[in-house]
Amino acid sequence: MSRQLTIWLLIFAVGAITYAARLSFIAFFARREVPPLLAGALKHVPVAMLTAIVVPAVVFIGPGMLRVDPGNAKLIAALVAGGVAWWKQSAVLTIAVGMTVLWLVRYLVG
């Protein structure tokens, strides 16, 4: 089997598995009520996914190079943005303040 065919089959298989997993969940709970424990757990999925994406982008400056110190402009901006998000609960304001702080720290620190 050629390498290109293997890649396409793998893409198709992963897509089919993902589709089946999502469809099974929807089909299973289409006529049933979601148990309260599962509903409570599902409320935390977006935050967990966002954390898994953002934290490595903030604290790692390269592959395997962790940087958690005051010289990390991304970390400072993320902490300030987190405070604004908690205080004002506005996504637009959080993004604006976070980017402004990031640019200012990068300009001032270098």
Describe what this molecule looks like in 3D.
- A two-stranded antiparallel ribbon has the order 1-2.
- The protein has helices at residues 3-28, 36-42, 45-59, 73-88, 91-109, and strands at residues 60-62, 65-66.
- The radius of gyration is 21 Å and the shape is flat.
- The mean pLDDT is 93.
- Helices cover 75% and strands 5% of the residues.
- The chain is mostly helical and 110 residues long.
- It has two domains: 1-32; 44-109, no CATH class.
- α4 (73-88) runs antiparallel to α5 (91-109).
- β1 and β2 form a beta hairpin.
- It contains five helices and two strands; from the N terminus they run αααββαα.
Please state the overall shape, judged from the principal axes of the Cα atoms: flat
Report Rg. 21 Å
Q: What average pLDDT do the residues reach?
A: 93
Strand content: under 5%
Estimated structural class? mainly alpha
Number of distinct beta strands = 2
Distance between the termini: 52 Å
Question: Counting H and I runs of at least 4 residues, what is the number of helices?
Answer: 5
Q: Strand-and-helix sequence, N→C?
A: HHHEEHH
Low-confidence stretches: none
User: What's the main sheet like?
Assistant: 2 strands, antiparallel
- Helix fraction bin: over 70%
Overall number of domains: 2
What topology, given as strand order, has the largest sheet? Answer: 1-2
